Each structure stands twice: as structure tokens, then as C-alpha cells.
Amino acid sequence: MELTSEYEALAAAGAGRATLWQTLRARLREHSTLLKFAVTGAGGYIAYQLVFLLFYESSLVWFLPDKGEELRLLAFSHSDARLLITTLVAAEISIFAVFAGHHLWTFRDRRTVERPIWLRFIQFNGKAAVSSLALLTLIVNLLTLQVGLTAYLSIPAGVIAVFLWNWTWDSKFIWRKRSP
Predict the structure, then answer these.
(1) Rounded to whole angstroms, how far apart are CA atoms 174 and 117?
(2) pLDDT tops 70 at residue 15
(3) How many Cα atoms are found within 13 Å in the side-chain-facing hemisphere of 145?
(4) DSSP characters over 64-97
(5) Which residue, 71, 107, 138, 158, could crosslink 175 as a Cys pair with Cβ 3.0–4.6 Å?
(6) In the chain, what are the domain boundaries?
(7) Is pLDDT of 115 > 90?
């Protein structure tokens, strides 16, 4: 109640000027695509965490190697095969979920350069291969195995690290605005 009366007083005092709420709404509209991008990314983060929890912590996925089981492929070795497989699968499922969210909601109203959805998905997946499959997987595995953080702290650190990369590529290239 007290806040409402303060805003009403501000509105009455600023006759002829935009009210605080009008200003706030205008600012939010200016940044609505970025806000939608962040919300869609948060949905992808939740999808990643759920898949990670299901694959890494649950015995429902019985066919995966045990935690801490070493993986050796030619010259490559990894000290926790289950962690590696889980982070890769979680990243790809998250990539698909985020693409769908961006295509159907985040950039839906944007007049973008015309291209088929399959091509846009390939471009998105290529960008995500660098950010999610490479950078995120690398950061999570390094912080978990080398630094000793729990994966549930390593994952948010990785997500924060790739946010700017993703925003730049998605808004400036994949869903690039048409020239006027």
C-alpha cells in the first residue's frame, strides 16, 4: 500500500512527464528480446540440470559407466566417463530446447533474414557446439575434476561464461534483423 501511494504521488507531481511505471515499461520493452533470451536460456539451464541429475545421479540410466570409471579412446582419456557422457547429452538436449524457445518465442516477432528452419538449426547447433558442447563441457569438467568443485557449482559457472557468446551469435547472426 505504501509503495502504491508513493508512486501515485510521483505520478501526480510529474504531471506531463512519464510516470515511473511508464518509464519502467518502456525500458523493459526496449530490452524484451534480451529478457526473453535470458528466460529461454534459464529454461535450457533447467533442462540441462534435470538431464544431468537423471543421467549422473540416478540409477535409472543403468547402461552408463559408473562414476569415476576411466574412459580411454585412442590418445584420449577421461577420469570420469559418466560425467563426460552426461555433460555431452545434457548439453545437446539443452541446445534443442533453447533453439525451440528462441525460434518460437524469443525471436518470433523479429523480422529476420529469411532462411529455412533446418539451416537455422544447423547454424544454432554449430554455435552451440562451441559454447555448450565445447566450452560448457570443458569448464564443467575442469572445475569439477581439476579444481574440485561440485558439478552443481561448476555448471552455473560454465553457463555464465557462455551467455555473452550465445547472445552475440544468436542476436547478430542466427536471428539477424533484416536490413531496412
Answers:
(1) 10
(2) no
(3) 17
(4) SPPTT--EEETTEEES-HHHHHHHHHHHHHHHHH
(5) 107
(6) 1-30, 31-174
(7) no
Asked whether the beta carbons of 169 and 41 are under 8 A apart, the reply is: no
C-alpha cell at position 48: 540441462
Rounded distance between C-alpha atoms, residue 40 and residue 42, angstroms? 5
Q: To 5 degrees, how large is the angle CA 178–CA 37–CA 144?
A: 130
CB distance 179 to 49 below 8 Å: no
- Cα separation of the two ends of the chain: 46
For 19-67, give the DSSP string.
-HHHHHHHHHHHTHHHHHHHHHHHHHHHHHHHHHIIIII-SSSTTSPPT
Residue-wise pLDDT for 116-159, tens only, equals 999 999 999 898 888 877 888 889 889 998 999 998 899 888 88
**Residues 177 and 111: beta-carbon distance below 8 Å:** yes
Q: Is pLDDT of 24 > 80?
A: no
